[in-house]
Amino acid sequence: MGEFHLHITSTIGLLLGVCLAAGVLADLVHLPKVTAFLLVGLLVGPSVLDLVPTEHVELFEPLLKLAMALVLFNLGCEFTFSKVRRVAAHCLTLSVAEITFTAVLVSIGLALFGCSGSMALLLGCLAVATAPATTILVLKEFRSEGPVTESTGFLVAMNNFACIILFEFAFLAIEWFQGSLQVSFGRQMFGVLLNVGGSMVLGILGGLVVSYGCGFLNMKRWLVLLVAAVTFLLGVDESFEIPYMLSFLMMGVTVANTSDYKQKIVDELDHLSGLLAVLFFVAHGTELDAGAFIAAGKLGLVYIAFRIVGKWLGVYVAAKATRQPPEVRNWGGACLFAQAGAAIALSTIAVNRNPELGKPIQDIILGSVVLFEIIGPLFIRQSLIRTGEVPLAQAIHHTSRTPLEQMREVVDRFRAALNGTAPAVSAIGKVKVSDLLRKTKGIHQSADFDQVVAHIEHSHDNTYPVVDDRMSVVGVIRYPLLSDVLFDHSAAKLVRAEDLVTDIESCLHEDEPAARAFELFQGETDDCIPVVQRASPHELLGVVRRSDVMHALITQRRKNK
């Protein structure tokens, strides 16, 4: 008999199966699932157990690029023009500072440790890139909301756009300085701009097709249209060798601003992108080379250290200079450490263009990615917890049943089905209000109507706490009353937050059980309840949402014994 070879379909089943195990392990040890998928991919890949043939992973490449395209499309769908104007007003400075600090510090740091000027310059440009799939999917996993989450999405988009532009122009400058340009400098620059512009135009056209098609097609046919548009556009980008990441980012932005069904389109794609994302990270994990991390040596460690410092320091300095919230200042940069796709792809381009210059660059990138992809999600998770943009119970949730308890529940449910009775569901258990807390500063009672609207624009609630100078809750603004003022333009100019306040019916304290919140929500229509300190002046700590209470109830319920 000939040597046994695992079929590629079995490889896919193996990867998805180990991802299931990794997801359970991630819950138990409080890891982001993205990190768990990467680690288990590294485990079954060539670096450790070598269970997955390299040629199979290479065949996954179209699916992995499709997964990345869908993530970028989803990211672009977040940027309506009104949101871009609002976010850019306070994030553009952060972006410019973070990009500049990262590129300059990495370039100078590598040059000081013996790296050639050309190599240091290109690595400085590549250091700007942030892995969009890793970063965005961790944010989605924890359902985070707040200024750090919002700024991270904008910074990730700007980082990858800037990385592509900086890399192309840096390579062009190096070739011009070395006298190795095959054509004139002006013509080469025009080619770079044409590729970038063409990529963006293709994305806009693809977005218009999706918006137009979803406007008259039955929703049951949307997924076919979306997959057809994305795969065709991806193929065009690959055929003409133009940056596909810009195409799908612009495709999402176009849909966000030309379709009334943006959220439904994103929800429809989630059915596919969730599965592809799992395959993306575990397959990407198999490509991580632990040996490359060691081979990168001293320059690899210098690159890692200065990239981390550049991203954190850039955001910190810009946020402090522009007086942004301390959450953004202290934790915004920590959400940008992950690095993978764009940097790897561009380092490969560098090897193809100039093997002598590009090979050591690729070695450093491949080596550092092993670390950045593992620690990146961990830093994001820590940042979200520290800033209160994700409830603690959600961040540390893990399966509450042992395998034996789960087996008993399956048997009990089977018996209940035979007897025609429904299994009982318990309360939330040991979860406290502090575990479900989402931090917020509320709306100051002196805020004018425009400031109230600005606060509400990036909120998902229908109830908004109003505070005085001592951060004590004086009442809440409820959306029905606010909507009446929205249509009275003369009144809107005179109204302040304190004029819209209605009495608060109930408050929660951090040390109360989450079951208390569940009881209060049963008698109210509000989406959230303020959480205040017990001691006077009863300072606002945040809010507990109805959706988070229900999420905790569903994910942590146990059968009553």
UniProtKB/TrEMBL annotation:
UniProt domain Cation/H+ exchanger transmembrane: residue ranges: 20-374
Any single biological process term in GO: proton transmembrane transport
Domain spans labelled CBS: 507-553
Transmembrane segments: 6-29, 89-113, 119-139, 151-177, 189-212, 219-236, 331-352, 364-380
GO cellular component, one term: membrane
Membrane topology reported for the UniProt record: Multi-pass membrane protein
GO molecular function, one term: antiporter activity
Primary localization: membrane
Database matches in InterPro entries: Cation/H_exchanger_TM, CBS_dom, CBS_dom_sf, Na+/solute_symporter_sf
Keywords: Membrane, Transmembrane, Transmembrane helix
A Pfam family annotated for this UniProt entry: CBS
SUPFAM superfamilies, alphabetized: CBS-domain pair (SSF54631)
Localization terms from the record: Membrane
Superkingdom of the source species: Bacteria
Protein name listed in UniProt: Putative voltage-gated ClC-type chloride channel ClcB
Lineage, uppermost ranks: Bacteria, Pseudomonadati, Planctomycetota, Planctomycetia, Pirellulales
